[in-house]
Amino acid sequence: MDFSSLALNKNLLKSIAEQGYQQPTPIQEQAIPVILARKDIMAGAQTGTGKTAAFALPILQLINDSSCEKKVIKALILTPTRELAQQVHKSIETYAKFTEIRSALAYGGVSIKPQIAQISAGVDILVATPGRLLDHLINGSVSLSELEILVFDEADRMLDMGFKDEIDNILKRIPVSRQTLLFSATFDEAIFKLSKTLLNEPQLIEVNQRNTAAAEVEQIVYNVDEDRKRELTSHLIGARNWRQVLIFTRTKQGADALAKEMCKDGIKTQSIHGDKSQGARDKALADFKEGKTRALVATDVAARGIDILNLQYVINYELPYIAEDYIHRIGRTGRAGNKGLAISLLSPSEEWLLEAVEKVVDSRLLQQWLPGYEPDLTKQPKSDRNSRGGQKKRARKHALGEKTTSKNKGKSTNKHERRNR
Length: 421
Ligand code: AMP
Fold this sequence. Notes:
By secondary structure, the protein is of the alpha/beta class. The protein has 3 domains: 3-206, P-loop containing nucleotide triphosphate hydrolases (Rossmann fold, 3-Layer(aba) Sandwich), CATH 3.40.50; 217-379, Rossmann fold (3-Layer(aba) Sandwich); 388-421, no CATH class. It is 40% helix and 15% strand. It is built from 17 helices and 14 strands. It has helices at residues 10-19, 26-36, 51-65, 82-95, 113-120, 130-139, 155-160, 164-171, 189-198, 229-239, 252-264, 278-289, 300-303, 324-330, 351-361, 388-402, 415-419, and strands at residues 41-44, 75-78, 103-106, 125-128, 149-152, 179-184, 203-206, 217-223, 245-248, 269-272, 295-298, 313-316, 340-346, 367-368. The protein is globular. Mean pLDDT is 85; it is low at 382-421. It binds adenosine monophosphate. Adenosine monophosphate binds at residues 21, 24-25, 28, 47-53, 307, 309, 335-336.
């Protein structure tokens, strides 16, 4: 199949050709005709599958065909993070390049005034994070009374981050009669529950098996002692001459500390997390994309939406406390059919986290030792400190410091960060 058989107009086909896309990806092939037929969809697709174009292209086509010529918001795309919002907005601008369709961005952590000016100048599409959109709706600087299409991008993440209340509040302020498109990398009970309240006879589209990692990503687990992880990370990057590596830590402090130490090892590294200003995050990401820094250390929340097409290497310096995050992390590589390698560094006290990851990806991950970095088996874990109950309790405390889950939303120290989105 090629794009010309997808009922998209010549302006859209022109920008697709300019991007060098040869043929639609599986999610595009399946979703575009259904969206053009004005049906609701519930799509299981990770980042890297081409899901943004899968909704952006048909939305642009539908707006182009719409009888409403007024510059009012006809489509709203909700994303969990500012990074993803920026990414989606950039894609929409790229695809809309040869059309008259205008789009705007609204996310927190930055001044609201320029957003108000841009939106009031008249836009057809708004890409927004839930907290800031709600601010605009309450202020009256955004009206969604003529909304025709609502998209939830990375809906699982939105729920994980505790945005359910904001979502419910937004839903009260938009037309009931609309087309709704829900995209999620993973499906669980909470997503199905949300879909029931949101979608009208949706068509289910799945391009990957549920909750499976991108097939193009090779996954390796190295057993290593906690206190040698940094050394091993710098060794891997240096000895194998990797030029662009995304590294995940669980905490903001951990990200900063690792970046600092790696710089001392001679590897240009920056960190990106929710405590950094939007400007600092944008700059770190731009430096990484341009190859000015070799490694970027990120927390899970900050890394959402990072789209680097040719990123080959992801290192899980620590496994995530929320096992589904593993899929999101390794989905940063192996994008659009490129090969990727995801290495997880596993200390003896993290084995229970690997078990949880293996449950989510539904396969056993091969554990191996890297010569010179073998774990020291004479170091016996202190039974109390490393008991599973103790680990889980500490894990929960740590996780709450960085993000919320749908169960404990609103109670975490992350509330401030959510309001800033
Ligand atoms: P996404 O899953 O939307 O984050 O897209 C991942 C990457 O795939 C982006 O960099 C897109 O530019 C790229 N992409 C989207 N559609 C295609 C296509 N049909 N062919 C090749 N690359 C694509």
